[in-house]
UniProtKB/TrEMBL annotation:
HAMAP family: Ribokinase (MF_01987). Its main location: cytoplasm. This is Ribokinase. K(+) binds at D250, T252, S286, R289, G291, S295. Its EC number is 2.7.1.15. Belongs to the carbohydrate kinase pfkB family. Belongs to the carbohydrate kinase PfkB family. Ribokinase subfamily. Activated by a monovalent cation that binds near, but not in, the active site. The most likely occupant of the site in vivo is potassium. Ion binding induces a conformational change that may alter substrate affinity. It is found in: Cytoplasm. It comes from Collimonas pratensis.
Length: 304
């Protein structure tokens, strides 16, 4: 089993001819709601990409609003165990308000809502679920004390801990030391290594940044590099894996899809290189489609 601990959001996506100025009212927008949030996206990706024998569960919080009900239904429709997805009374579900202009540029405002209510008590209540899991996956869209608590418990129980340190923030070394696979993108890797973002423009620079992260204690570091693929520093050695060539339409949830595919493959006992290739094939399919969960492919599409 794979357990994902993290955020669930409703993405409120407005396609606009151009970004509005402060105080301006702009007509001509097109509106859609799409289930999202890094935690939920990774859970959906893991569920769609896993073998039938691998179960996926989520530990998370929703608000007691209409979005909460819709988001829970979306998880269930992908076969995700939601028995530890709590509904928090008097709270709104997490939302991301996303404006996308004609050129594909976006600006995003997040309101964490119920995601901020995920507490160490929720993790303790889900201990039996965590005990059954082989892999635990976390991101940084829920409160850090809860993430620390969950990582500590999972590590003590001998689980494989996967951390996607997104959105970027500096993390303490003792936390990173309990992570078996740290999966940042370039921006997050630079921030965690204390380097300027633009400095990671070649393999040697990435290798130096990754060496710093590993010195902090992360066993394996996989830096996702968008169209340039994945730089993986594994216990067995470092290697740059090329991305699948594809015409990118919308890269929303590319990283989440990669992570879901990677852990789905690991959960069925496949090797690291194989799991990276599987994750990248899934991510490439997702960038050729619009939206977060709407873009995440199913296992049969990869086998085709
Ligand atoms: P994030 O969305 O977290 O910033 P990245 O942009 O690094 O993550 O993308 C994650 C993975 O998705 C990449 O490692 C790659 O496999 C795939 N990917 C992203 N953009 C492209 C692209 N333009 N073409 C092919 N694959 C892509």
């Amino acid at each position: 089993m794979i357990v994902i601990i993290g955020s669930i959001n409703m993405d409120l996506v407005l396609r606009v001819p151009r970004m509005p100025h402060p105080g301006e009212t702009l007509s001509g927008g097109q509106f859609r709601t799409i289930p999202g949030g890094k935690g939920a996206n990774q859970a959906v990706a893991a569920a769609r990409l896993s073998a039938d024998s691998v179960k996926v569960a989520m530990i998370a919080c929703l608000g007691d609003d209409a979005f909460g009900a819709e988001l829970r239904a979306a998880l269930r429709s992908d076969g995700i165990d939601d028995s530890h997805v709590s509904t928090v009374g008097g709270t709104a579900s997490g939302v991301a308000s996303i404006l996308v202009d004609a050129g594909g540029q976006n600006s995003i405002v997040l309101a964490a809502g119920a995601n901020d209510a995920l507490s160490p008590a929720h993790i303790d209540a889900a201990r039996a679920l965590i005990e059954q899991a082989r892999i635990i996956v976390l991101q940084l869209e829920t409160p850090l004390p809860t993430i620390r608590h969950a990582i500590k418990l999972a590590h003590q129980l001998g689980k494989t801990v996967v951390l996607n340190p997104a959105p970027a923030q500096v993390l303490p070394a003792d936390l990173l030391a309990q992570v078996e696979y740290l999966i940042p993108n370039e921006i997050e890797a630079a921030m965690l290594a204390g380097l300027p973002e633009a400095s990671l423009d070649n393999d040697a620079a990435i290798d130096a940044a990754v060496a710093k992260l590993r010195a902090n204690g992360s066993a394996n570091v996989l830096v996702t590099l968008g169209a340039k693929g994945v730089y993986a520093a594994l216990s067995s050695g470092s290697e740059h894996f090329a991305a699948q060539p594809v015409k990118a339409i919308d890269t929303t949830a590319a990283g989440d899809t990669f992570i879901g595919g990677f852990v789905a493959a690991l959960a069925e006992g496949r090797g690291e290189a194989d799991a990276i290739a599987f994750g990248q094939r899934a991510a490439a399919l997702s960038v050729a489609r619009i939206g977060a969960q709407t873009s995440i492919p199913y296992r049969h599409e990869l086998e085709a």
